[in-house]
Amino acid sequence: MATAVTPVPSGDVTQRVGVEVIRARGVDVEKLIKMLIANAAAEFASTYYYYTILRMHLAGYEDYKEICEDARLEDRAHWELIVPRIYELGGELPNDLCEFHNQAGCVAAKLPSPPTVVNILTLLLESERCAIRSWSAVCDVTFGKDPRTYDMAARILNEEIEHEAWFIELLAHERDGKSIPSGHFRRGEPGEAPYSKNARFYNP
Ligand SMILES: [Fe+2]
Ligand SMILES: [Fe+2]
Asked: How far is the CA of 75 from the centre of ligand 2 (A)?
């Protein structure tokens, strides 16, 4: 049941109508900020950073490198998309990078040992699955209450689901000799991020 919106006095810069309206609709804003910081940390500190290392080690698999590069750059796009929303909601990023890293909502995608292509693809797949769970949770707490955060989370979720499909296809092929199509073709440019950058979809 929605509660009344706390009135924000004229000229008051210490409160935000954009926050009070979603609080009145039932959003736990402090919890949402924590979730967004955890997801931002997973996108940037964990996924974007570690995917860079993982991509470097896909030597000899130029096609896999390109798919990894798409996922890597799209995680950077996810970071760019969501960080301003944290501040709009009245939150902020931790000033300390180690502290930020440790708040990540997904396990760091560190280089596996040994760094075989199958081990790397398995790790990439599980990272995408963590991202799907994390962004779905943000969609769940904002649906019907906070359309702006919901729209951003849903855009990111669209791409995470595609990333999972890419790595299922590659891992099934590489490890099991099986064909499980993702249903997608390569992006037009690496890191195109059609949803989170609001670019065109596959059809030219
Ligand atoms: Fe992401
Ligand atoms: Fe992803």
From this structure: 6
Distance CA 37, CA 56 (A): 27
Ligand 1 centre distance from Cα of residue 117 (Å): 21
**What is the spatial distance between Cα 13 and Cα 106, in angstroms, rounded to a whole number?**
35
pTM: 0.94
What spacing in Å lies between the alpha carbon of 115 and ligand 2's midpoint?
Answer: 20
Query: What is the whole-number distance in angstroms between the Cα of residue 82 and the centre of ligand 2?
Result: 14
To the nearest 10 degrees (0 to 180), the angle between helices 117-142 and 147-176 is 160
**pLDDT tens-digit readout, 119-139:** 999 999 999 999 999 999 999
Instruction: Identify the CA nearest to 44 among candidates 83, 85, 75, 82.
Output: 75
